[in-house]
Amino acid sequence: MLFTSQQYFSIYILIFETTRLNSNNVVYISGLQSERMEFEGLVEGWTVWSAESTKAVLAYRPDVFDSHEYAPECLPTIYVTKGKRSRRPGRDVPDPDDSWYVTLYLEPDVSHNQQECSTREAAVSASTELAAAFDRGEIDYRDLYQVPRPEYFEKLDELTGQ
Question: So what's the pLDDT on residue 91?
């Protein structure tokens, strides 16, 4: 699709009018903080796989669950998202009033209880606590599966001390 110079100018004005800086020079767009999420004190073994202003993915031991010895979907991950991941397709930008959600996935269709948080800071804190609990072996991942993966469980048991 081609835009005329007037359309480009209109798009620029729209972006300019919905963007502002706060006192810490953090950009806010349509009421959303656009600073990348940081995870202080993340327990060893968990890695920040990706982090943006409204979503982050933490991965557990990607050096072990690297799709060679285990199926690619067998990478434990924690998603931190503003708004539910199941929101309508095409709605990439969450509403400023949306809650934050923290979810542990053992596979794309195998998840632990989703935790709802009111602020980004609370969600980041909840995700680091969940990562630590998983690493200490406090999450019973076997109960989450309908069809178990014995080799995967054995490796998780070894890494989490269960």
Answer: 60
